[in-house]
Amino acid sequence: TPTCDPETPLCCRRDHYVDFQELGWQDWILQPEGYQLNYCSGQCPPHLAGSPGIAASFHSAVFSLLKANHPWTLSTSCCVPTARRPLSLLYLDRDGNVVKTDVPDMVVEACGCS
Amino acid sequence: QGTRSACPSCGDPTLAPQAERALVLELAKQKILEGLHLTSRPRITQPPPQAALTRALRNLQLGSEAPVKGEEVISFATIADASTSACGSMLTFHLSTPRSHHLHHARLWLHVLPSLPGTLYLRIFRWGPRGRRPGSQGLLAEHQMTAPGWHALPLPSSGLRSEESGVLRLQLDCSPLDSNHTAQAQQLLDTAGDRRPFLELKVRPKEPGAGRARRR
């Protein structure tokens, strides 16, 4: 998935690093110091439907369906996360206990057109 | 208005960089609280001493296989009256294990002082609710320690369900096995400062429908 840059109108991954100090949360989140808050944005024209991030065979299946039916159906394809990973956090709970846990699906790694 | 008039995804006017950054930070807060099942960030009134924290982090790394589904918790003991004999200490823990989780692994970490003469015999009682005599909940575990330093003592997780209030009290009762050292029992366990005892717990989300099988 391309990382977004100002000139990219197509589906891409927009990267933002969030430092917990910037949130004022460094007193209770002990590790890590921050995390990648990425999100997907950009256009998904019909010829990109089912593209990056999903198996090529799916892409060709969608493409032949589009050709077989009215090629430019009204249904739109959206730019969505197609791969995400958990974020491991070490933090203090309200009783001052140290808690280590994995928060699932917190970091978007890849985007694609639905 | 940003440099381009419209957002490539939704066509709305693009945000100015500062506004986008503020929105991203707000989103980050929401996602983290949601992921930790918290409604607001915890207010830490008594953070554990940095040295105790460092030691606990080292213990969390010790033998820590890849993080499992669920949580690992380190809970530091508060000691009713540190001046009394460490061997008769009452250790109080505040545990907020959510109902949707169950405890499947528990160890009590104690630091034995170098003044240990021979073998130390230790019994750990669960203190009954509302201050009833120790032992009313029965003996949790007994251990013999022959070397000074840190000891991780396994406890039966079934016996550690905390009270409704989230408070768990453990009463220690220890004595040297060799009877002519009884007088020194007071100086054998280290319960103050950064060597204060702590519980190492592993909790896991309850499997859906787990309780039903038992009821049947």
Layout of secondary structure:
The complex is a heterodimer of chains A (114) and B (216).
Chain A: E1 12-14, E2 17-19, H1 20-23, E3 29-31, E4 34-36, E5 39-41, H2 56-68, E6 79-92, E7 98-113
Chain B: H1 17-35, H2 50-61, E1 71-76, E2 78-79, E3 90-94, E4 101-112, E5 120-126, E6 139-145, E7 149-154, E8 167-176, E9 189-190, E10 198-205, H3 210-215
What does this structure look like?
The complex is a heterodimer of chains A (114) and B (216). Chain A has helices at residues 20-23, 56-68, and strands at residues 12-14, 17-19, 29-31, 34-36, 39-41, 79-92, 98-113. With 114 residues, chain A is mainly β. In chain A, the strands form 3 sheets. In chain A, strands 3-6-7 form a 3-stranded antiparallel β-sheet, with no helix packed on it. In chain A, strands 1-5 form a two-stranded antiparallel ribbon. The longest helix of chain A is centred in the middle third of the chain and has 13 residues, at 56-68. Chain A is elongated and about 60 Å long. Chain A starts with 11 loop residues before the first strand and ends with a strand. The relative contact order of chain A is 0.25. The model of chain A has no long low-confidence stretch (mean pLDDT 81). Chain B has 216 residues and is α+β, with helices and mostly antiparallel strands. Chain B is built from 3 helices and 10 strands, in the order ααββββββββββα. Chain B has helices at residues 17-35, 50-61, 210-215, and strands at residues 71-76, 78-79, 90-94, 101-112, 120-126, 139-145, 149-154, 167-176, 189-190, 198-205. In chain B, strands 1, 4, 7, 9 and 10 form a 5-stranded antiparallel β-sheet that branches. Chain B has a 5-stranded antiparallel β-sheet with strand order 2-3-8-5-6, with no helix packed on it. The radius of gyration of chain B is 24 Å and the shape is elongated. Strand 7 (98-113) of chain A pairs antiparallel with strand 1 of chain B.
